[in-house]
Amino acid sequence: MPKLVTRSDGRKCKPRTKPADGQDSNSQGAQLNQQDGGDSAVTVAPSAAYTQVPGADKAPASSAAASSSAGGDNWIGGDNNNQGNNAQASSTSSAEDTTATAPTKEHGYGGGLPSTGSVGGGPAKKAGVSYIAPSKAWDELKDLLGWFSTYSATPGDGMPGPEGDGAETPTFVAILWGEGDNPAEPSDGDRLQKFKQLAQEDSYVRYAQGFFEPDCPGYMSADMDVDSGLRLWNEIVEPMKNKGTALISPSMCKQMAETWLQEFKEKGGDWQFTNVHINKPDGKSVRAAVDQYLDRYGKDLWVSEWACVYDHTGRTCDRADDNQFCPCTDMGEIENYINGTVYLFEHHPRIAAHAFSNGDGLGDQWKLWDKWGGDLTATGRLYRNALQAARDGTLQIPEGWEEACANLN
Known about the structure:
The protein is α/β, with parallel strands linked by helices. The chain has a domain at 127-392: Glycosidases (TIM Barrel, Alpha-Beta Barrel), CATH 3.20.20. 21% of the residues lie in helices and 12% in strands. It has seven helices and 14 strands. The protein has helices at 136-141, 188-200, 226-237, 260-266, 283-297, 331-347, 378-392; strands spanning 5-6, 12-13, 81-82, 85-86, 127-129, 147-148, 171-172, 174-175, 207-209, 246-248, 274-280, 301-310, 326-327, 351-356. Strands 5, 6, 7, 11, 12, 13 and 14 form a seven-stranded mixed β-sheet that branches. The chain has a three-stranded parallel β-sheet with strand order 8-9-10, with no helix packed on it. It has a two-stranded antiparallel ribbon with strand order 1-2. Helix 3 crosses helix 4 (260-266) and helix 6 (331-347) packs parallel to helix 7 (378-392). Mean pLDDT is 75; it is low at 1-117.
């Protein structure tokens, strides 16, 4: 009998089923649905299909200039109702990936500059949070963030809207979570209707993100087949491009082992930024995921969730009965991971945006805030401090991340 997962609202549910043998899995996904709720410029030419975005007169001109190719691994997801909001988390499992290679000039990182800056039309400040709401934590972080999401199409009362560029105020990134009929996720239908309404409005939406982990089942993931996803994408999301919206691909729960997005692309799905979830324990595996997704799709990355997670077998924890998704618990390790990830992502000229994963399923040590609407936790303060140091140009590559952060210039 699999161990039950306790959601934020106190409900119990079965954890997501693990992928077939030989597949990697990503894990963790924070999701909360709120009810109606820089500096140095790093420049990269947008992908060909998006070189001239219709409606670009509504948005600041994007910069151009650095070419490269490179490229991902494992899985993510989750959802919990909490005071009218839905929080998400996920579990994962996977066989050890042995294909990771050291970064080389083959992955062509020319001109990477530290800290904030727009990459190929990305937000003016790269850093974000996968979920946040009005809180003391928000007040402490917002000046360092370029964007945020709520796993829905509405930002929540008192939060910024979806039209900004992330320079002065973080911009809200709307998400089409699923196709509206996931029996494991009661809010799926409401999310779909809210996104449809947003897509039909005349107001400007700068960024729109595709389905949340459609390649896995359970309340933590959208659980969609590729054909259904493509139909809905072409019906609702793709037309938003004509109004100047930059499209962010569906995210995958099976990180580097994913095949869903590959089939989606082969059947005609198109987007500007490739959406990536990274749940890894060290710099080498984080960089391997980045390089694989860049190599595979050739588009700049939007890392919409990242967290410190041991996602392979061989480590014991209480996270799940198969012990293949174990969040990091040592605060020294977490500090090292946050500093390394922020350094890598802020300096990488092909990463347009990235977000600390703020959701359930990642253990007490990883939480961004201490309670709903509360203060930053010790981990939240580590993220804030890393972002501030990146902005000031004082963030250093931590021990063990030297190889992962090589060849970024």
